Every structure is written in structure tokens, then in C-alpha cells.
Input
Amino acid sequence: MIEKAGYLPGLADDAVDWQTLRFGGNDNPLEIAVPVLTDAQMKALAGRVRAASRERLKSLTLAQIIGIIDAAVARLLDRSDPVRRKAEEILPIVTGYDAEMIRLGLTGYLKTFRKSELQKFAAEDFANPLILDDFQPMPKGGFARAFGPDVLAHIWAGNVPGLPVWSLVSGLLVKAGNIGKVPSAEPLFAGWFAQVLSEVAPGIADCFAVVWWKGGDTDREEALLRESDAVLAYGGNESLAAIRDRVPVTTRFLPYGHKVSFGAISRTALDTRKAKDTAHQAAYDVIRYDQQGCYSPHVFFVERGGRVSPGDFAQYLAHELDTFEKKYPRRALSISEARDIAAWRHGEEVRSFAGENRGLIGNPDNAWSVAFVDGDEDLSPSGLNRTIKVVTVDALSDIVPRIAPYKRLLQTVGIAAPPAELYSLSAALGRAGVTRICALGHMTAPEAGWHHDGRFNLLDLVTITEIERSAETAADTYAPYAD
Amino acid sequence: MNFTDKVVLVTGASRGIGAAIARAFAAEGASVAVNYLQNAEAAEAVVAACTEAGGDASSFRADVTDSDAVPALVDDVLETFGKIDVLVNNAFRPYKFDPENRRMFWELDWSHYQAQIDGALRSAHGLCKAVLPDMRRRAEGAIVNIATDLVARPTIPYHDYTTAKAALIGFSRNLAVETGPLGIRVNCVAPGLVYPTEGSKDTRESVKDMITAQTPLGRIATPEDITGPVLFLASPWSGFMTGQTLYVDGGLVMS
Output
């Protein structure tokens, strides 16, 4: 099977060089053809997107754009739609994730882009979303209007299917022309989404493009960066720093780096009735996309003093992970991923020899690992792919110093705690750098309109043009009706 | 069924059903801890038979109704084999299955019941409690408790014995609920009359004929008949079964 990646308005297939990426191994071979553009083609593409975004997208109202995205998402939510069927068939091969997990994940994720959710999304960032359509009166006097960039570049990373839709939708909502670069690990979904958009709204078919280049191909990257008014980039700090160095100084650069997330479980969530459900929710956060997301937990801090002890909780968690393995099996690991897990297990094992207060549940054959520590232990990254550590704390507030070393990297905390504790702990976590707090079991499914890494998804993209009160007043004096 | 690298502790394994169970596990490659109370010679014979069958085995003397002896027994087995994957609670207080001379209800006092409850339930309780820490560490394990089909159909009312075994089934179901979320399964095998065993060696031919006549499969169970269901409940083949009781009596009881 050969599948073409990308979405290149104005470029005929035979005018472009294609490279082949191979997936699926021997059982289920899949070839993906990815486009390799020349500098001139990239420049022409950016010019086309720029012109179309100025002419077409910027003349649409926000409500019209929301209507278009809603129609595209409705198609992708429809399991009989050919693109949706293709996604369900091909994404498990490309990413290795369990097909059921992908199917449910896609639906849960795409649901957050329906019309009602998109309206909330816009209202999150703009007190008056009409500011995207026309000048709006401001409380301080005068008027203001928000303008999105003509060309917004997206440099996507990772292999969680569908993630590019986030920033692509953000760009469309602020009426930006969008050119996204897909990662080799999952090069397809963004192109399919663009294709569906162009089918439901042919009028804006030139307002976005999806391209590819091999990681490290700085020439191609620079060709896009030169043409962009703003750049959104995802990835590790090193690659982000490299991109930042190539972004022209007048271009807005919005980096989203690697993040670390964790869970916090109060003793009240660990009575003999609730403990099992708590472990189930916690395990779900671990198995979703095999901890590949920035919102995936690496550690669960568990409070002492519940009817079910943190050590017992670790055992419940282990069994839940074992049970999930039957429902949503872990994907096949690369050699280096397997090595990372082995190294993590080895490290935990060696330390468990040194002290009675540590242990490792499960054996190397299991598709999961649970380490347990009853003692002072800071937050630390897991071995990924369903490796998790349970760390005992006397009180949830004890977590705060243990996460301090990771201040710049913190993102999501999944919490199971009663209201008073939720709010007091959240304040401390926020000060410590955490930007998102959610229920256990919801860590990998941020709600619509969340502020990714504590930033404003839409507001960060626009520039505000203000008509000050003086201009408004002065204009009156030049009016033909002036007395 | 492959039990290679699996460690199985069988209580009361020097004779009868227990010995057959030990040999059957060994034949599938398991390392078997043969627990016995009195007859060291018989236990050694079972160990030898296990080794010959292709497994590994050691004998462990302990009174499983003794609360102090049980943790020591489990520690010994862990010391020898490193872990315990399967526990088979087979031991019970010696009992004479003699339909013609059994004690009637008004001839029994509480001490008779207590003796059987100690034999079946106290021993299972102590052993389950003692092996759980090791099983929980690995988030897996299987416990098989040997009951009797008399619980479902008291053809002969052996009040004290059957009541204790009924309690063992109730105990097993509750434990199954508690340990299910930890990946540990608990099930029972309920044999009908098994011949020959120490308890049934005096059972008269006429009684066996009566039972045989009512048994769809038309005979009395042998110790080897019990081993298959025990191994099954200890294996991943029954990985989604817990809290169950399998009746192994040729169809005498159907539930």
C-alpha cells in the first residue's frame, strides 16, 4: 500500500520530488510518499497561501470559519467517511498504537473541535471574539481589531495522531494562512485534515498547506521560516533552540517544548471502595498513547494514611496496567525504546536492592512496569511506554519541593483529592510551574480551549490594531457633517 | 499446559489427591513444594516421582493448621524456590468417610466442627495470607482450594467436614473479590468421592456402586481425575476465571 502525505495547493504531484517512508514491518507493509520541495516551490507555496489567506480567509467572519471547521470535523467524526476509514486503518500501522485506542482517541479528540467547542475556544482568549472580524469598542475608549498572520508556520513533532489539528485550527480561527511541516513519525493526519477542509470549503483550499522535510534539513526549514510571519514549533529544547536561531528576529516564535506531567492522589481517594477506581483512572492516563504525550504522567505521588496504602495502590495500578494490556496492547517498541525501559527498570532494581523502601512490581516480560518508593523521591522522568513510579508522600503539599527541579518543564497534574485540597494544592502547583490540573483519567484529553502550556493559543498568534480615542475624536472634525 | 519456571506449593501432598496434584504439576515442568505433616517417607516418594516426571520438587514438613508454622513454611519455600506462583490448599484434618458409621448431627458437638474448620479453613486462611505478599509483588498468582461436591449435594451428611468445606468455598469467593484487582485468582475444585485415598479406602463397594449408578460418567473419581481441573485453574488458560468452583465428580452434581 502506498499513501501520499502532505497537501500542496497549486503543485501538481508530478512537479514534486517524492521520498518514501516505510512503516508496518513485514506483516503489514505500508509506504508513505512524502513531498520534498525545492526552495522555489516552498517560496511559491508560501506566496500562494499568503495571497489566499489575505483574499479569502480574512474576508470570512469567525462564525463562517467555525462553520467550515465544524463541517470538516463532522466528516472526520463520521465513521463511514472514507478519510475517517482510512485514518482508522492506516494510523495503527504508522504509529503502532492499538487500533481501538486510536479509534476512540480520534473521536474523543475531534469532538473538541465541534462548533460549540470552537466558540468556547475563541471566547477563552477574546472577551469579544468579534474582535477577529471588525474593530470593536474597547473599555478604555477607542477601538481594536485582532489580525492573524498571513503565513503561520507550524513545525510539528511526535507520533500522537491528530495533534497538528490543534495548532492548525488555532491558525484558521485567527484567519492565518497555514503551512505545517509534519513529522516523519506520523506524516499523514494533518494532510488528510487539510484535504477534508478543502473539500468542505473549496473557496479556502489555497489557504493552507502541509509539507515535509527530513529532520535536520535546515535549508528546507529556512525556506519556510523566511516566508513566515509567525512560527509555532513543537519538539525538544535542543531542536527548538536550533529553530529559534534560524527564525528572523522580526518573526514571532512560539515554542512548545517537552513537558513532564504527574499525578497526585489524596488518601481520601484510597478507601477500600474507591482505590480500585482510582488505580483504573491512573492506569488509563499511563496507557493512552504509551506515555508519548506532554500530558502523560511519569510519577504518581500518593498520600499515606488511606485505608489502602500507597504500596497497595501500586499493586492495584500494576494489575490495572496488566488488564489494559489485554484491551489496548502496547505498541511494538523500537530497539532504543526497549533499551530505555530496560535501563529504567535496571536503575529502579539496583536502588531497590539498596533499601527496603523501594520495589519494582512485575517482570521484564510484562508490557508495563510499576516502581514503588516509600521515601523522599523527586519527580523524575519514567522509562516511557507504560513505566510508572508510585512515590509515597505524608501530605500532598509535600509534592511541591519534589517538583521544584522541574519548574520549567511542568505541565499537567492529574489530581484525585477533595475540594479544599484541590484548590489549596492547585495554588501551590501553579506557583511551582504547573499549567494544567485535571481529574485523574483525563490527563491525556485536555478540554477544548485549554491554554497549552499556560499560553493563549489564539491571542499569542494575533497582533492588535488599536484606533485610539484621539483618532476617533479627531475624525469627527474632518467629517463632511462637521458643523 | 506448561508450568516451566512456575513454583507450586501443594499442601497435604504426601498422599492421595495432593500427591497426584504434585506429580501432575511436575509433569508439566513445575517446581513443586510438597508439604506434608507426618509421613516423611511418603513425601520423599512424591518428590522422587515429581523429579522423575520431569519437574523439580522438595518436601516441606509443616502443620498447616498451626498459625506459627505456616509463615515459616512459606518462607522455607520462598528460600528454596524464590517465589510461589500457585498455591493449592489440599490439606484437611483426617476424616473417615464411612456412610454406615458416620456421626449423626446429635452426636456431634462443636469441637468436631471446629476440628474440620481448622483443617480446611484455618489452614487455607493462614497459607493465603502468607503467600499473598510474594504474589502481590509480582501482581500475579493463582490459588486453588480443594473443596467437595458434598457442599452442593450432601449425599451423605458429613456435617462437620462438609460445613468446613462450604466455608472454604465462601472464603474463596470473598478472597477472589479482594485479590482480583491485584491480579491474583482464587478458585475451588470440588471433587466427588475419590478412590482410592486414605479417607475413602474403607468405603464399601455398595456405596461406590450407588454413587456410580447416579454418576453420568459411570464411575468413581481417581486422584488423577482431579489434577486436570486443578492445573487448568492454576494456568493462564483460566486467566479470566476467579471465585469459581469446578465440580469434578463425573456429572453427579450439575450447577
